[in-house]
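A student in our group prepared the protein record below, which I am reviewing. Thanks in advance; the entry in question is below.
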Amino acid sequence: MKAILIAAGKGLRLRPLTETKPKPLLKVLDKPILVRSLSQLSKCGINDFVIVTNYLEEQIIECITSYFSHLNIHYVHQHELKGSANAFLLAKEHIEEDFFIGVNGDCVYSFPLVSKTVEATKNKIVSIGGKFTTDTEKYGIILTNQKKIPQHIVEKPSKEEISEGYANIGIYSLNKDIFGILDEMEKNNERSSRGEYEIPDAINKLLQKQTYETKLVELEENDYWFDIGRPWSLLEANETLLSLCDEEREGIVEDGVHIQGKVIIKRDAIIRSGTYIEGPVFIDEGADIGPNSYIRKYSYLGKKSRIGNGCEIKNSIIEDNVHAAHLSYIGDSIIGPKCNFGAGTITANLRFDKKTISVFTKGKSEDSERKKLGVICGEGVEIGIGALLMPGTKIGSKSWIGAGTIVNENVPSESIYYGTQKYILKGKRKDAD
């Protein structure tokens, strides 16, 4: 049995995080998204995979090889990003058995959900993963009959058209007859309104045949699914997975450290005296925290990160090799690898009017639906002392932010951004000695 994982997209809505890293390799806690999916499928007995790649594919191949040298993995290059249906079609020659698994490579799934999809494949059942939602306009909605058998997928219907239903969450058990459908779609140039060949359109045609037993693999109460399509989706996934982690203490904890709640401290990490940690918190290998730092719940501190004296970290993702050595506050933020925060850097994460925070994404303003959201930094950003970063701003990779600068707009990658201040010297004070 084989699984096809689609990992070709550029992840433009996740910029600047995807400027230097492909979307499937963005980490949730300590593991890349694609690694999580492969691990779960492997636990279910799947050892043969086809991964469809394009953007920064060398990184994907290198990463997956380092984790899974024992698995049989074929990589297929999607020369032109023509949609998910085209990506599946490119994997056709590697599928011999009648049924296979299809997975979006940029989603995070709970293990029971993956396991139920594998079981459907073993039993030769066509299945679609679905999550019940009333936000129907955001998703492809799976229409079902009274027995919850999938009948059709409608892409982002209006609330008036469909007020509730099951969101298509991008994990499938499929029969290889779908490849014939995919061939016909391309021959007839059957593209969606986005100009792409879409796998839900092909699944609709497969469902119409009514040749196979069909099943909805429903997201249940204790399951989770995250479509990592926006930066704040990473924060949401991070929060959920952190709450499910078991406590672990491998690093060094000095005297005078106070730990409250569940905390994971990986090997070679050091927590210095005077630090207060309020779990759940994940501190990865080789991180150096403190002295006198305050690490608040739902924070992930990456490998060899350095959080120094008097710093406060709250509900944030701090990637590998980030330095914030003195008197900084980072809240509800995502900080890419190798960033450096000068002393006194502050991330603002709340509007005065307490409204949800909008982020300028892919040429337009988008509501994050979060009342608290800080800054999103790409890789290798250098920030001068005393900088103030406003809610929902993005700083592109390898940019420099000048000392004392207020950042209230997105900063492109490889830019120098600084504010100026006029100074007036009026001479000696009259009352001076």
In short: The radius of gyration is 24 Å.
